[in-house]
Specification:
heterodimer, A: 620 residues, alpha/beta, Type Iii Antifreeze Protein Isoform Hplc 12, Rossmann fold, six-stranded mixed sheet, four-stranded mixed sheet, 24% strand, B: 96 residues, alpha+beta, OB fold (Dihydrolipoamide Acetyltransferase, E2P), 2 domains, four-stranded antiparallel sheet, 4 strands, CBO2463_dom (chain B), D_pro_red_PrdA (chain A)
Chain lengths: 620, 96
């Protein structure tokens, strides 16, 4: 199939191959050329050999000297009048320091190149992922040569001729008071004494009775010594936190218990797991990726509920919701005890400020959350952090985008019903410690205006309905850049792609983040999906059934941040590698660390967990 | 996998619709598949009786070994299920 002039321009440096039979003597035009995007497969299967082939920009307008069949690569022996094209690499004379860096970089992997003073970073992982960071920056139109020895200065995102620096504006702040818990016991009433939390005996019956669908509820207190025990599938991990006085989510003061989390698990009355498929239940310490934003930390005590709901309701909307609501009866009683605590017990105070930075590049975070129904749902904006009361299920809101402040996210405005699969689902605690929100909020070069939550409905027409609203919202916000994140893989990648398209077509820089790797490869794509960050951490790029293993971490947030900055600075993005290659991420992380001077610490993956030898052989 | 690239088109009929998943009978009595909603791409509201199609290859054994971890999980799970079913039956009898 021939290509258009526009495609030819995009692929000017790609191989020129005839799309159909052409007679000797013709002037080669775009209509004679094949689309270069299909060449990889043809080369792989041995149908095409691109050795010595000329590029599209070299042969456009040249004359064919020999009649050739379709799919003939155009080499100098069949073309007359080849255009000389300047070799970009040789245009500028890089200063010595750059040359040194170039060598160093090139020796690590061929993915990284420095050309004409531009350090190109390529993060191709199944789909297009690239970063480019000017090393010896030439500051905009002024043409001021900066010392080349400063690769540490990453793209100054603020417009070059920044007339006057506008002051930062603190919109609101949120204080977190931490209270330490070292022991959880049962007792006659729910209270906190010193660092001991007592949970009232018999609260289980009340919690179960509060929900018609709940047959029974059991509380297990799991201390670190009991980590190596069997558990039903973990449905959610939640922080225990309460607002002070009349404060609302996202501002004022929040009290939180350290060292203890609530864990929701459950089955239906016939013992079938709630909202789960397959065998992800099992021994706790083999199935939890410790320290992920959404997962427990090693050493924490789990207040684990095991909710039994009416048989057959495990896959219907009211079932998982009832299990969460019943568990929240217990959490709510702990919250009330937490509210009564004396301030002298506070061990640490954290303050988050929502800062607007007028004049800096304005960005928004779009977080796609599941909304297909049943366990694919999220409760938005409860009265208490990660509570149930007052919250609206995302599905009932029609999955339309909802704008929240970054502080509302960090204050538990999402109560996640978290579906499959365990490795990529974002638990309620994930939002409480959301790395992308934190990194962007604290980045002094960016002005984070808000976080948009948008549900992922089941039917395609509804997916496009909500993504068009996302596009319109971003347009109205006048943002320069946007992050789009999603959890897990499946049909949610259709709206994920659509969100990126709707934002990208409005001329806004956009970076997508998802678990993809091998198993979660994107099902659809479009021309705006050039900047992608993969959240995969598993060794073999799969859903490895380890809780929260492949969720968004700080290292992913940092990569996305630099990618968006590079794109907003107008850097060209290179094509991805054809297949998922974990080295790309490592190289990029290393390059970012080199450029920023700050090491990016990578989190451990499932290989750090105890695991039977057999599983290791089979799985990873 | 030895035959991983032998992809065939399979068709099936939706026989169960839940809020969180669908059950699909493979045409030709070739089996039954239950998938979560998010693994199903739909242009219309999902209804029992609708036909679906997908590509798949044959399922191959990866080796003769038994994975003890999965085995033990399965046994525990089945034992629990049996116990809970029995309890559930008893409860029903009591309420009747």
């Amino acid at each position: 199939m021939s290509i258009t002039a526009e495609t030819a321009k995009e692929h000017a440096k790609d191989p020129a191959v005839l799309c159909c039979r052409a007679e000797a003597g013709i002037t080669i035009g775009v209509e004679n050329l094949e689309d270069p995007t299909i060449f990889d497969d043809l080369v792989d299967s041995g149908l095409l050999n691109l050795d010595g082939v000329l590029t599209i920009e070299q042969i456009l307008g040249a004359t064919l000297t020999k009649t050739c069949d379709s799919l003939t690569p155009l080499t100098p022996d069949v073309v007359a009048g080849i255009k000389e094209v300047e070799q970009e690499m040789a245009v500028e004379e890089p200063e010595e320091t750059e040359a040194e860096q170039k060598e160093e970089v090139a020796s690590s992997q061929s993915i990284v190149t420095t050309a004409g003073g531009v350090l190109k970073i390529h993060i191709g992982k199944g789909k297009d992922i690239d970063i480019e960071i000017p090393t010896g920056i030439t500051a905009g139109a002024a043409g001021v040569q900066m010392p080349a020895m400063q690769p540490a200065s990453v793209v100054p995102v603020a417009a070059a001729p920044a007339a006057e620096e506008k002051p930062e504006k603190v919109i609101r702040s949120l204080t977190r008071k931490h209270f330490k818990i070292t022991e959880v016991k049962r007792g006659p009433e729910t209270k906190i004494e010193g660092t001991v939390l007592y949970i009232r005996e018999g609260i289980e019956e009340e919690a179960a009775a509060s929900q018609e669908l709940v047959n029974s509820l059991k509380i297990d207190i799991i201390t670190p010594e009991q980590y190596h025990t069997y558990s039903e599938t973990i449905m959610d991990v939640q922080p225990i936190a309460a607002k002070e006085g009349e404060d609302e989510i996202g501002s004022g003061t929040t009290r939180v218990l350290d060292g203890v989390v609530v864990m929701v698990t459950g089955t239906d009355a016939n013992g079938v797991q709630i909202g789960e498929f397959g065998s992800s239940e099992g021994i706790l310490d083999e199935n939890i990726m410790w320290g992920r934003p959404g997962a427990p930390e090693k050493g924490e005590i789990f207040i684990k509920t095991e909710v039994v709901i009416k048989e057959g309701t495990n896959m219907e909307r009211p079932g998982p919701l009832a299990a969460h609501t019943a568990t929240d009866v217990i959490t709510q009683e702990i919250r009330l005890a937490l509210k009564k605590l004396d301030d002298t017990l506070v061990i640490d105070t954290e303050t988050f400020e929502q800062v607007r930075r007028p004049g800096k590049k304005k960005v928004v975070i779009v977080k796609e959350i599941m909304g297909q129904g049943a366990m694919h749902d999220n409760l938005i904006l409860p009265v208490e952090p990660v509570g149930v009361l007052g919250a609206k299920p995302n599905v009932d809101l029609g999955n339309v985008p909802v704008m929240v402040s970054p502080l509302e996210v960090l204050d538990g405005c999402i109560h996640a019903l978290t579906c499959i699969g365990p490795a990529s689902k974002e638990m309620s605690r994930h939002y409480w410690r959301e790395p992308l929100v934190l990194e962007t909020l604290y980045d002094k070069e960016l002005d984070l205006c808000g976080v948009i939550f948008v549900g992922s409905p089941q039917i395609n027409s509804e997916k496009f309905y909500v993504s068009k609203r996302v596009g319109m919202m971003c347009e109205a916000l006048d943002v320069d850049g946007a992050f789009v994140t999603t959890e897990g893989f499946g049909n949610n990648h259709i709206d994920f792609a659509s969100h990126i398209e709707q934002i990208g077509m409005r001329g806004i820089s956009v970076v997508g983040m998802s678990f993809c790797a091998v198993q979660g490869a994107l099902v659809v794509g479009n021309k705006y999906m050039t900047n992608m960050v993969d959240n995969n951490k598993s060794e073999s790029g799969i859903e490895n059934e380890v809780l929260a293993c492949n969720t968004l971490c700080h290292e992913d947030a940092i990569r996305a941040l630099y990618m968006l900055k590079a794109d907003m600075a107008g850097e060209e993005i290179k094509k991805p590698e054809k297949k998922w290659n974990p080295n790309v991420k490592e190289n990029n992380v290393e390059l970012i660390s080199n450029v920023t001077g700050k090491p990016v610490e990578l989190v451990a993956n499932e290989q750090s967990l105890p695991m039977s030898q057999k599983r290791k052989e089979k799985y990873d | 996998m030895k035959y991983g690239d032998k992809i065939i088109r399979m068709e099936g009929v939706i026989v169960e619709v839940h809020d969180g998943c669908v059950g699909i009978d493979l045409k030709g009595r070739l089996g039954y598949l239950k998938v979560p909603m998010r693994m199903l791409i739909t242009d219309y509201p999902v209804k029992v009786g609708q036909e679906v199609a997908w590509n798949m290859s044959f399922v191959e054994q990866m080796g003769p070994e038994i994975n003890e971890k999965y085995m033990s999980n399965l046994m525990t799970y089945q034992k629990r299920q049996e116990k809970m079913r029995a309890n559930n039956r008893d409860d029903e009898e009591v309420t009747q």
